[in-house]
Design brief:
245 residues; alpha/beta
Length: 245
């Protein structure tokens, strides 16, 4: 199921939180409403950790991770690192990365098996990503944008990418990731997919501005609530008919 949420009047919830199959990080300084959305959906299954990274609230853009690990920028303080380590399952490896492109959430997109990274990422960082997150790493762009983490979101079930991604690129990315992909938007037409939504294998959170058509596309491609990707065309057609009548 996809749930709408908002952080301090911002629909870019992917900036202020990070969601994987093993844990969820949420930024400190939000409203109780924001936290309760996550805790009501996730608290029985995975830990929901309130934290800052490098003293900042934009934790979704500064960190990247999956069920195997979490990577933080080198500016993360010892206290923050220890707090997160105490709250996460023992199976999750947490590591600081000394990388020039320090907004790791913008330059890395990954699921539990594959990672897409910015073409200019350090070779050493690429190895750390492969070792810590236990993924196969590919240097890629999404619709000619190097910030792969900002312009796509994918899980072990499916993925959503920048609306201007060419069909050939979509096919290439889909074969690399071994999951079905669809080009789309969040937050009523925003192409910054990574900033506008959070998703794991069973649950998704979108910005408050996300339309019902966008939500139906998200629920279908990520197979949330038992939907299949082939149903996307049907549900979009239905919603268009509804809006015209």
């Amino acid at each position: 199921m996809a749930v709408r949420a908002q952080y301090e009047h911002s629909s870019d919830i992917g900036v202020f939180a990070k969601l994987t199959n093993a844990y969820c990080l949420v930024s400190i300084g939000g409203s109780e409403n924001f936290y309760s959305v996550f805790e009501s959906e996730l608290a029985d299954v995975i830990p929901v950790v309130h934290t800052s990274i490098a003293g900042c609230r934009i934790i979704g853009r500064l960190t990247t991770g999956n069920r195997n690990g979490l990577l933080c920028p080198s500016s993360t303080t010892d206290q923050e690192l220890q707090h997160v380590r105490n709250c996460l399952p023992d199976s999750v490896v947490i590591r600081r990365v000394d990388e020039r492109l320090s907004a790791l959430g913008n330059v890395v997109a990954c699921n539990d098996y594959v990672a897409l990274v910015h073409p200019d990422l350090d070779r050493e960082t690429e190895e750390i990503i492969a070792d810590t997150l236990k993924v196969e790493v590919f240097r890629q762009t999404v619709a000619d944008n190097a910030l792969v983490g900002s312009y796509c979101a994918f899980t072990n079930q499916g993925g959503l990418v920048h609306p201007q991604t060419k069909v050939e690129s979509l096919d290439e990315l889909s074969s690399l990731l071994q999951v079905p992909l669809v080009a789309g938007t969040v937050n009523r037409g925003s192409d910054v997919i990574g900033a506008g939504m959070l998703v794991n294998d069973w649950c998704s959170f979108c910005g408050l501005d996300t339309t019902s058509t966008e939500i139906s596309v998200i629920e279908n491609i990520f197979k949330l609530g038992g939907s299949q990707p082939s149903a996307i065309a049907t549900s979009m057609h239905q919603s268009l008919v509804d809006s015209m009548t």
